[in-house]
Amino acid sequence: METLALILAGGKGSRLDVLSEKRSKPAVPFAGKFRIIDFSLSNLSNSGIYDIAILTQYLPLSLNEHIGSGKPWDLDRRDSQVTLLQPHQVWYEGTADAVLKNLNFIKRRFAKYILILSGDHIYKMNYKKMIDYHEKKGAGLTIATTTVPKEETHRFGIMTLNEDGVITEFEEKPKTTTSREASMGIYVFSADVLYDALETLKMDNLDFGKHVIPYLIAKENTSVYGYKFSGYWQDVGTLDSFLETSLDLLDDETNRLDLYEQEWKIYTRSEELPPVKIGENAKIINALISNGSIIEGTVINSILSPGVYVGKNAIVKDSIIMNNSRIEEGAYIEKSVIDKKVIIGKNAKVGYGEDYTINREKPELFFSGINAIAKSVIIPDNTTIERNCSITSTAIITEKVIKSGTTI
Questions:
Q1: Which end of the chain lies in a sparser environment, N or C, as judged by fewer CB atoms within 10 Å?
Q2: Pairing of strands 29-30, 343-344
Q3: What is the rounded CA–CA span in Å between residue 1 and residue 13?
């Protein structure tokens, strides 16, 4: 076996607020019918890499149920194996620590290369090309890189590459930097180099960006290369980036992620639901509508997951509505992310008015006017929720007007 792939899928995703209350970040629905982890799994299947271990931790049930035997990604074949690795005895305390705690399992796979991925990014990538590059360079570690805007560099591991592609400097989430070359969280290790680094550095909270990568760059006789990736890649780590990245799929001029490409499909576990039904007075402009949905009202520049109902005279605009939610007659939804099985009552308004007061409890998450409503919440008839509001799963709505900047 040449390559063992490890997907780090235990992230809490706290910046996604209510979307990660009951699921890990990789299990969050995306683009209607998919989940975020589908992109990593599909990339592996399309790249012909079928020996995969998924390291889960935070609220793994939804993710485990979604993956199952791996059949949608062709991972239930005789020459493939997908293994779910949940922490035992103690929790994972860092990205590299999660791998270290499963080192016995990894060594038993006798792989030549270890491909380590994050399960919470949106992109298409042929990992085989990166592995071939790693082998050609004789690298101990190869890191996939992408160029990010200068104002975003503080969110990533930033590196400097020489003209041969060797990484000469690396800093995790720097406050200031002249480089814009960012780590994508995709690593190819020669197996012996990974084992040596983990066992040498063995410590609490062991992390690839903070510990393993700087160690290998400084180590003699070990070459660390950057693999420049020019394709589409997005980290949907915040509600704003999640909504923006999702709605970008609707813009034919700027969208670089082709979900309709036949040569590199994105696979997922799909429910058997009836076709979409469009009512005689319905109006749909620039939207993704998933199977099983019934549209009687108006949907503009929005994404609807399977089984969503939009009632007569209801309007959904610039929003994401997840599985089996109901937008009742006369309701109005704008710039909101609504989780599964939510009921928006008749003539209710979500995302309304000109007051953009920043959320008092979560100012770093709700400042642009976005609202988020957790799974299974009921918004009563004639209720108005203004802007920058977080409605959690325990919320019981009794007031008719929820002012901007409120958390319930």
A1: N
A2: unpaired
A3: 33
Characterise 262 by phi-psi region: left (phi > 0), alpha (psi -120 to 50), beta (else): alpha
User: Two tokens at 174?
Assistant: 């720097």
Put simply, whether the predicted model's pTM sits higher than 0.85 gets the answer yes
Whether 89 shows a pLDDT value over 70: the answer reads no
What value does the mean pLDDT take over residues 309-334?
98
- Maximal CA-CA distance, the chain: 71
User: Amino acid identity, residue 13?
Assistant: G
Q: Does residue 265 belong to any structural domain of this protein?
A: no
- DSSP summary character for residue 274: P
Q: Indicate whether 254 belongs to any domain.
A: no
Kindly provide the residue ranges of all beta strands, DSSP E only, lying in 11-156, ordered along the sequence. Answer: 29-30, 34-35, 51-55, 81-85, 113-118, 121-123, 141-147
DSSP β-bridge partners for residue 315 = 298, 332
For residues 299 and 283, is the Cβ–Cβ distance under 8 A? yes
Helices (H) and strands (E) in the chain, counts: 8, 32
Q: Which domain holds residue 211?
A: 3-248
Domain assignment present for 262: no
CB–CB of 187/169 below 8 Å?
A: no
Q: Residue 325 belongs to a domain with what CATH number?
A: 2.160.10.10
Question: Both 34 and 151 in a single domain?
Answer: yes
In a domain, 263, yes or no: no
pLDDT of residue 257 exceeding 80: yes
Claim to verify: residue 209 and residue 305 sit in the same structural domain: no
DSSP letter at 359 equals: P
**Which are the contacts of 404, defined by CB distance < 8 A and separation ≥ 6?**
353, 355, 356, 357, 386, 387, 388, 389
Cβ atoms 47, 186 nearer than 8 A:
no
Interval 96-119: pLDDT, tens: 999 999 999 999 999 999 999 998
CB 310 within 8 A of CB 294: yes
Burial class of residue 251 in the structure, from the number of CB atoms within 10 Å of its CB (0-12 exposed, 13-18 middle, 19+ buried): exposed
Radius of gyration of the chain (CA): 22
Q: How far is CA 237 from CA 101, 218, 242, 278, 317, in A?
A: 25, 30, 7, 33, 22
Is 295:277 a contact under the CB 8 Å cutoff?
yes
Closest CA to 26 of 242, 177, 216, 316: 242
